[in-house]
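Aim 2 progress update. The chain analyzed this quarter is reproduced below.
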Amino acid sequence: QVHVVESGGGLVQTGDSLRLSCAASGRTFSSTAMGWFRQAPGKEREFVASISASGGTTFYADNVKGRFTISRDNAENTVYLQMDSLKREDTAVYYCAGRSGRGATTNRANYDYWGQGTQVTVSS
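Predicted structure tokens:
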């Protein structure tokens, strides 16, 4: 079992940057692949980024590639999502998730542990 808690959301303007953090506890974090997903009002939850247990492999959704960076610190049991050049369409609740495996995936069905989410609002 992995318990995850997101933080770092807020209200920013178009073009600004924001860094989300996800603190994990429980199961061995260094053996757990992690991911970020987001859900905008009226839309399904979508994949944003994922990182393997070792941090050596990452995946990004096409609409954030080049602007967002996922990273992890296994010594601190934390995964980060650095978001640059934010756009209004990035507005959503962002969720951190962990899976019972070491490989990163883009499929939300593969993730077993979810946080409560943190709101990110980008205004023009």
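The longest strand covers residues 18-26. The chain has a mean pLDDT of 96. These observations will guide the mutagenesis experiments scheduled for the next reporting period.
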